[in-house]
């Protein structure tokens, strides 16, 4: 079977998958964005649709302004047990911690959190044949817990940490397969050294023997177009075929290669030999024809794909103040500020165009974090482009425009493979109005390799002063 990889493009890292009958459900990390933990559904593991966000209420997810970019919600595990969906994740924010949420249906509503007092990220949930629930987390450590009350019922114990001396043993998942228990982990860090390893034992407590072929998946030291492969989860299809979802990146440009879309979700087949999983070839595949995406803001609620930064107070947005328009009410004025009123979506294609019609003082932006973003915005005098790169902020001269709504546009154009020189930028970002380009900027500065962190680009709208109203937002892959 051939299919397009990544199966979920754009910033969808740390995938966790479960199957219920003929349906698959998947959850990903969301970091400083609200709502948190996107939930996606598929019938074939290839075509995915976002059906909601698990953490869509302030009572479920607190991300105060002091939460740094790439803080927030890390690496959920999604499971279905005893007729319910279970989600465990860690909020790496002030007063955060590890939380368990439950739901009757994957699209929600999800419960308020149950706090689990463990010190670690990437928590996993599994139940043994006696009904005991085990939580394994980065390290790789394990405790037995009461998932309904959040009580820890045993002292933490070390299980197995991959190759001796390997960096960052994390992302553990435990499975009962046949008469053995398998412990799947990531190691090597989530950068170019990322890898997937596995061990097996007689019980969820081990002892665990490592697979002699470890790591069972890695692209480190290769020129493969998919890099940083790791943080995997296994699932079995109704026909008995096993599959693995995992994160990876698609670097572009010259050296060292810059990935700009974030860590994405990939799919690869798995076979079994001598009681060990063997991972098939991970290929990019042939993508389906790109389809545009437009929101005219005619609905009273927002599509679940829309993201805000840290919070989305009810008073900060509306689609009914001016029917058919999205109204954003400014809190902080700048994209540099942690509380800016922003609504965006993940960039999912290396080349794309975003456009909007804005009435008021607001803009259109390509955001990586507070210190790394490009934007085109309206002012009292016209339209300007702002580039924030680390401690440097630059503004272009203002382009006068007629009074009234203004159509803003950003084109992102990927560099061609094999073009240029060792420092070839991954893409070029052109910002301006529908009729005039005000700036053409190097895209490498809005990449993880430059800015650091764990996220990818988010494209969207923001209010800078008062109320900014947006008639529509159009995303068009090239």
Short description:
With 478 residues, the protein is an all-beta fold. It is built from one helix and 36 strands.
Observed structural traits:
1 helix, 2 domains, Jelly Rolls, mainly beta, 47% strand, Tachylectin-2, Chain A, twelve-stranded antiparallel β-sheet, 36 strands, globular, 478 residues, five-stranded antiparallel β-sheet
What does this entry look like structurally?
Pfam families: GH43_C2 (PF17851), Glyco_hydro_43 (PF04616). Belongs to the glycosyl hydrolase 43 family. Keywords: Glycosidase, Hydrolase. This protein has 478 residues and is mainly beta. The protein folds into two domains: 264 residues, Tachylectin-2, Chain A, CATH 2.115.10.20; 185 residues, Jelly Rolls (Sandwich). The chain contains one helix and 36 strands. Strands 24, 26, 27, 28, 29, 30, 31, 32, 33, 34, 35 and 36 form a twelve-stranded antiparallel beta sheet that branches. The radius of gyration is 23 Å and the shape is globular.
Which fold does the CATH topology of the largest domain refer to? Tachylectin-2, Chain A
Total strand count, please?
36
Q: What is the residue-averaged pLDDT?
A: 96
Task: Please report the distance between the alpha carbons of the first and last residues.
Answer: 26 Å
User: Which parts are unreliable, with pLDDT below 50 for 5 consecutive residues or more?
Assistant: none
Beta-strand percentage? Answer: over 45%
CATH superfamily of the largest domain: Glycosyl hydrolase domain, family 43
CATH class of the largest domain: Mainly Beta
Count of individual helical segments: 1
Domain count, please report it: 2
Cα-atom Rg, whole angstroms? 23 Å
Query: For the report, how would you describe the main beta sheet?
Result: 12 strands, antiparallel
CATH architecture of the largest domain: 5 Propeller
Class from helix and strand fractions: mainly beta
């Amino acid at each position: 079977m051939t299919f397009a990889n990544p199966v979920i493009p754009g910033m969808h890292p740390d995938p966790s998958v479960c199957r219920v009958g003929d349906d698959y459900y998947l959850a990903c990390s969301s970091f400083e964005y609200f709502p948190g933990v996107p939930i996606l559904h598929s019938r074939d593991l290839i075509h995915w649709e976002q059906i909601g966000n698990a953490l869509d209420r302030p009572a479920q997810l607190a991300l105060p302004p002091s939460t740094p970019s790439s803080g927030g919600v890390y690496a959920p595990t999604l499971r279905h047990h005893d007729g319910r969906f279970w989600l465990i994740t860690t909020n790496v924010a002030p007063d955060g911690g590890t939380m368990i949420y439950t739901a009757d249906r994957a699209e929600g509503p999800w419960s308020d959190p149950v706090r689990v007092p463990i010190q670690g990220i990437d928590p996993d949930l599994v139940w043994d044949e006696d009904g005991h629930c085990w939580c394994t987390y980065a390290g790789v450590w394990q405790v037995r817990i009461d998932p309904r009350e959040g009580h820890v019922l045993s002292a933490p114990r070390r299980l197995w940490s991959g190759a001796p001396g390997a960096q960052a043993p994390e992302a553990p998942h435990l499975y009962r397969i046949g008469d053995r228990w398998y412990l799947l982990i990531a190691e090597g860090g989530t950068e170019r050294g990322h890898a997937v390893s596995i061990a097996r034992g007689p019980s969820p407590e081990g002892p665990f023997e490592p697979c002699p072929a470890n790591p069972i998946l890695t692209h480190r030291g290769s020129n493969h177009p998919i890099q940083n492969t790791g943080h995997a989860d296994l699932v079995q299809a109704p026909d008995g075929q096993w599959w693995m979802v995992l994160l990876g990146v698609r670097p572009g440009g010259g050296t060292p290669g810059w990935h700009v879309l974030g860590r994405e979700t990939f799919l690869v087949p798995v076979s079994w030999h001598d009681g060990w999983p063997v991972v098939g070839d991970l290929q990019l595949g042939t993508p389906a024809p790109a389809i545009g995406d437009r929101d005219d803001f005619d609905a009273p609620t927002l599509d679940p794909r829309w993201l805000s930064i840290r919070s989305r107070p009810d008073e900060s947005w509306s689609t009914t103040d001016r029917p058919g328009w999205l109204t954003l009410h400014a809190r902080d004025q700048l994209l540099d500020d942690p509380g800016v009123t922003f609504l965006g979506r993940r960039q999912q294609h290396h080349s794309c165009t975003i456009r909007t019609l804005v009435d008021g003082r607001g803009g259109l932006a390509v955001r990586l974090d507070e210190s790394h973003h490009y934007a085109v915005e309206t002012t009292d005098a016209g339209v300007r482009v702002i580039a924030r790169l680390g401690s440097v902020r630059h503004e272009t001269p203002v382009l006068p425009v007629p009074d009234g709504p203004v159509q803003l546009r950003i084109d992102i154009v990927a560099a061609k493979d094999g073009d240029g020189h060792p420092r070839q930028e991954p893409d070029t970002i052109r910002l301006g109005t529908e009729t005039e380009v005000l700036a053409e900027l190097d895209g490498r500065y809005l990449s993880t390799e430059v800015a650091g962190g764990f996220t990818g680009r988010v494209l969207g709208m923001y209010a800078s002063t008062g109320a900014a109203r947006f008639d529509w937002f159009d995303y068009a892959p090239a």
